[in-house]
Specification:
single chain, 104 residues, mainly alpha
């Protein structure tokens, strides 16, 4: 793993542990939805380091979006919004490096 990729991977691990500490310090919030968001945010630098940017951004949008939906209890209309965002994001990044739509 080259140095820049290792730094992004380390950034993801650091984001995860810092976020976990913040979640445990703030006792007034529900724990589990924000752990989903934390995993999504920590996943993003790692996937960028692996040159899988589309997967990282899409996963981050889904995990943070699901955390917000569970926290605000608006699952049914919100899931349709997440599907729409995911489809729009996929169409915008169709030609980007790391996209599953680009032929190797």
């Amino acid at each position: 793993m080259e140095k820049a990729n290792r730094n992004l991977f380390t950034l993801g691990v650091g984001v995860f542990f810092l976020g976990l500490a913040v979640i445990f310090f703030v006792k007034e919030i529900d724990l589990w939805p924000w752990i989903l968001a934390l995993i999504g945010l920590a996943w993003l630098p790692w996937s960028l380091a692996k040159k899988k940017g589309w997967y990282g951004w899409n996963g981050c949008v889904w995990l943070v979006g699901l955390a917000l939906l569970f926290y605000f209890h608006i699952f049914w209309p919100g899931i349709l919004i997440l599907i729409g965002i995911s489809i729009a994001f996929g169409s915008l990044t169709r030609k980007a490096p790391g996209s599953p739509f680009v032929k190797p």
